[in-house]
């Protein structure tokens, strides 16, 4: 990690030392610019009870350029597309070098609490959210149970099928 810019080292140390509730970000052992992120679905949101995997990558230009972040866990959200890309202003035109990894992750967590169908990335999901919010919320809850619950991946799923 000594070849890393000091800012990245400091941000990484702070992320590890000062945990944010519902967010875990661990640097990859082979690449300190790549982070394995888990965001827990916020309470009282359609994503509550879910554990969402994301990847975050700091480009060479960071902090002058925004981190690259995407969901690895499938999610039904108007601001997140099928590839896991996120429509969030601070990841695009509102990025500022004053922002940090922590700010980005808190903003993504907030986006889970307050989907914005008026600025969509997944148009079909946004249309559903606008035309029948109750059905959209039920679908988001169902996808959270299917794809983001503790039983949706790995050996837990295999154990459940074996019974």
Automatic annotation (TrEMBL):
Gene Ontology biological process terms, A to Z: protein ubiquitination
Database matches in CDD domains: UBCc_UBE2N
Active-site residue numbers: 87
Keyword Nucleotidyltransferase: no
UniProt keywords, alphabetically: ATP-binding, Nucleotide-binding, Transferase, Ubl conjugation pathway
Domain UBC core: start-end pairs: 3-149
GO MF annotations, alphabetized: ATP binding; transferase activity
Keyword ATP-binding: yes
Family: Belongs to the ubiquitin-conjugating enzyme family.
Record's protein name: Ubiquitin-conjugating enzyme E2 N-like
């Amino acid at each position: 990690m000594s070849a890393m810019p000091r800012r990245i080292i400091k941000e990484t140390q702070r992320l590890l030392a000062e945990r944010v509730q519902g967010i875990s970000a661990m640097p990859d052992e082979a690449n300190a610019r790549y982070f394995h992120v888990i965001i827990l679905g916020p309470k009282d949101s359609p994503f509550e009870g879910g554990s969402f995997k994301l990847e975050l990558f700091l480009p060479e230009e960071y902090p002058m350029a925004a981190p690259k972040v995407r969901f690895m866990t499938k999610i039904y959200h108007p601001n997140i597309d099928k590839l896991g890309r996120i429509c969030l202003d601070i990841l695009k035109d509102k990025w500022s070098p004053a922002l940090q990894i922590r700010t980005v992750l808190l903003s993504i967590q907030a986006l889970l609490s307050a989907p914005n169908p008026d600025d969509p990335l997944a148009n079909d999901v946004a249309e559903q959210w606008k035309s029948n919010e109750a059905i959209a919320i039920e679908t988001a809850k169902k996808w959270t149970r299917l794809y983001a619950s503790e039983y949706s991946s790995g050996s837990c799923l295999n154990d459940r099928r074996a019974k």
